[in-house]
Amino acid sequence: MSILNSEFRILNYLVVASMLGVAALSAAPSRITTAADVTEFRGVIADDNCANGDHSHMKMGDTDAECTIACINAHGASYVLFDGKTAYTLSDQKLPEKFAGKQVKVVGSLDSRTKTIQVTSISAT
């Protein structure tokens, strides 16, 4: 009877280990960002109300920077990087404030489905 009991324990152990393995794989991220995914993007920091960088219709300040910050604070807009053709949402919504209305280089990885850049760094150009 002890052989049957030890076989049952081994089988039980294998079932539990398999279930834990499946659970661990299910919790793993669906996409892992690698160094090859990180890219440099260049453009101007704007807001998604004035995503093309043209603040003339909003007139929320005397400068593009003032308008961008006012749209963020007063209208709940989000910071974007406008490259002259496309506006990309920025994952970091605090760092861009000091670069509002300025030409910058953003380093990060792009989620092309959502047009969102996972920001690694932002610097003035």
Explain what this protein looks like in three dimensions.
It is a single chain. The protein has 125 residues and is of the alpha+beta class. The chain folds into two domains: 1-30; 35-124, no CATH class. Helices cover 30% and strands 29% of the residues. The protein has two helices and five strands. The chain has helices at residues 2-27, 64-75; strands at 38-47, 79-82, 87-90, 103-111, 116-124. Strands 1-2-3-5-4 form a five-stranded mixed barrel. It is elongated.
Q: What would the keywords be for this entry?
A:
five-stranded mixed beta barrel; 2 helices
Taken in chain order, the helices and strands follow as: HEHEEEE
The amount of beta strand, in percent, is 25-35%
Q: What structural category arises from helix and sheet content?
A: alpha+beta
Strand order of the largest sheet: 1-2-3-5-4
The count of β-strands is 5
Q: List low-pLDDT spans.
A: none
Tell me the count of domains: 2
The biggest beta sheet is recorded as: 5 strands, mixed, barrel
- What portion of residues is helical? 25-40%
Shape summary: elongated
How many angstroms does the end-to-end distance come to?
77 Å
Q: How large is the radius of gyration?
A: 24 Å
- Mean pLDDT across all residues, rounded? 82
Total helical elements = 2
